[in-house]
Write a structure and sequence with these properties.
single chain, about 80 residues, alpha+beta, YefM-like fold, 4 helices, about 35% helix, about 20% strand, flat
């Protein structure tokens, strides 16, 4: 099982989801420690990547009136105030 970092997940989320949709299992690390296991749901062969809503999320996203969310804000939402 391969390990990816939070930075890789943020920067390459579509590629990571593509790997998962092909059946690959991954360990997600944050600050050098493993924190989560990422694995496909169900049979990877059942859902074509074009039909996966997570792989197409960028095409449906709308710009925020507040501007882009900063990485530290995302970390605070996911992990609490640090």
């Amino acid at each position: 099982m391969s390990t990816i970092t939070m930075l890789e997940l943020r920067r390459e989320s579509a590629a990571v989801l593509s790997r998962l949709s092909k059946g690959e299992r991954l360990i997600l690390s944050h600050r050098g420690r493993p924190v989560a296991r990422l694995e496909p749901v169900g049979n990877a062969e059942q859902t074509p990547p074009d039909a996966d809503p997570f792989l197409n999320v960028a095409s449906r996203a709308l710009p925020s009136p507040k501007g882009p969310t900063k990485h530290r804000q995302i970390d605070a939402i996911l992990y609490g105030k640090q």
